[in-house]
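dumping these here so i dont lose them again. two proteins, back to back, each one seq then structure tokens. dont judge the mess
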Amino acid sequence: MGDRFEPQVHCRYFNGYKPCGKNDVCSGTCPHREIVKTRVLLIHLGALGAVVRSTSLLRAIRRKYAACHLTWVTQAPADALLRGHPLIDRVMTTSREDLLALSSLEFDIGFCIDKSLVAAGIIAQTHVDQIFGFVADARAGAIVPATPAADNLWQIGLSNKKKFFENLLPETQLVADALELTTFARDEYELPLDSQERREVANRRSQWAPSEQIVVGLNTGCSSVIPYKKLPVESQRKIAIDLINAGFCVALLGGPEDTARNEQIAFGLPVISTPTTRGLRDGLMSVAACDVVVTGDSLGMHMAIAMKKWVVAWFGPTCAHEIDLYDRGVKVLSFAGCSPCWSRTCNKSPMCYDLVEVQAILSGVVRGAEWLKGKQTSSFKLHF
């Protein structure tokens, strides 16, 4: 190959089959050339909100492994949220084609965040010199820590007492510690929008609130795994009515599973019904167009944290202490004596979502409005 060509094979942007887009000519004098010192594999398949949360690890990974090339393996449709990310060099899924491509690669470092046999199987079939996080004990057929550093997070998952009452650390710190990413720096989620998406966000914002009202997004739903992480329709309507009466603009957020529900909430009310069937990136733009987001512990909450919104998050079945709002929000806890529980099925009456104070949520929104006013970076007019 010759001295002139050889270094480019190890450039972060070199792929070997098309121009990288950084320079017209691939040469040893390219100003964009970054020689890779460490090949890193990160496996986090799901859930969607947890994948968004794990973007907080990217800065720490690149601090510890300077000049690294990072490949992230996830499950569709989470890949749509990660593609084009400036801190991720390659995004792959669990599709047959991607796993076949993955088998041709070698890595110095592997991070397996999921405590699942599928994730453990992927990393076991990939050439990785050193693994952090979790692996499978092949004979036991169970997930175990890859290194002693992951033992604390592993133990928390095995004990309701530890998870619900003894642990006080956010999941971001627990995972960073488990992966041995040096001193925890409370890095933010990172989920950047591209230029076209930013223009669309500005367009939606101006259409929704031409009078410069504060836009409050109501994230009305959640995944089907724990369906009790969403408030009843009646509670959502009361919140919307009270916010409208206080002078806020209200936008209903959600995914395809929330379409019919949002129609019920919106009936007869002057609210914005954002698109629910255009995919994750479109939903992210709607969140970005809001100023404050009211939400349960769901993907929408993690999107709002990533977009650095003021978040009013309510918690019933899940653990509020595991979530870091980065000093931009309030947590409203259910008064249910059995909360948290992480139960996927429940027939108790009243339910934990019935024991969430609507007034506490409204007060959280007002605090968000004051926070926005205190930033002195907007001209939003408060009407309450």
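---- next one ----
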Amino acid sequence: MEMKSCRHFNGYRPCGFSSTCDAHCPHFQAVKKRALVLGLGAMGAVLRATSILPALVRKYPGVQVTWITEKSTTFLLNNNPLIDQVLSCSFDDVLKVEGQEFDLVFVMDKDQRVGGLLHRISWRELYGFKVNSRYGVIEPASVESRELYEIGLNNYKKFFENKKSEIQLLTEAFGLTWKKDPYVLELNCKEILESQRLRRKWLGEGKALVGLNTGCSSTIPFKKLSIKGHRQLIRKMRQQLPPGVEIVLLGGPEDTIRNRQIGLGLNVWESSTEGGLREGLISVNACDIVFSGDSLGMHMAIALRKWVVAWFGPTCAQEIELYGRGEKIITEAGCHPCWKRVCEKTPMCYDQVDLNKAVEAIERGLNCILSSSRQPFLETFS
């Protein structure tokens, strides 16, 4: 066997499994194929796309996976057991793969930057999307990718005809078999212990912890309830949910002041919002149930196998897979979905979300959790 074909071999020092690199190492794992995943899109989309990994290793046993994404998103892929190397699309990281040979390349985004990246490497099979060198436009890279490509070019098909989740479409576009595979996300031991500490702090003697993810990205700012809407939701939860339910506000740095305004005078906890993506995962993981718009926080909760109550306004509810652990609340706005980034309608779609339905869905989640011998939170550590 050749040492350089081992999954753990790096060529400049022992890998850590053994103190000596030689042909007799008991930890040798042969790399049978090399795969590169290019995921340069939104953080939530990248986290969701980790669900392709189980299908990938099923089809290609012994595959070595390198994933390139935005630098700010790399933290979501840390500690992933099915990814061998996580790189950013920075100049220095791209240099690390320039000139290398890959058996498989999977492009998940309609992004013209992938054209430049693909010209820097050698590859045998390409799935997803590519850039037409003559016209500089995005086109499908394979026959399997055509359905996902065409859905993106036809609003009626995307909004109303398509019934597949985005995960299923992406898996099939990559020539893989869809088996409702979950997102792949793992916390390290330190993060798990911190989740447990936060849970004890926030829950106290209570029975269940509900997290309200209050924010979303600035790309489509209407995927979050208003401050007034969140305050109304909290009051309804206090009125309708049984005793022993604690509420914590979740979010990122852009939500710090907003969360203070939402929680002012109400009996809720506020999570830290300034510690970055991994701290956000820790806070989400401390919860049993997460209520959220179609955002990164929702994807975090799905990845951590929480009960998710997700509401949808501008975006397509059918594109999200909850894996039987949650419910979807659709705005009553007649213009849903639209995917618009700018809107001046009154009332807005987020003002037409039935909060009573949201509380009822949360209560059904609580009943499911409390009637089970194992809470979703505990499953993370089993």
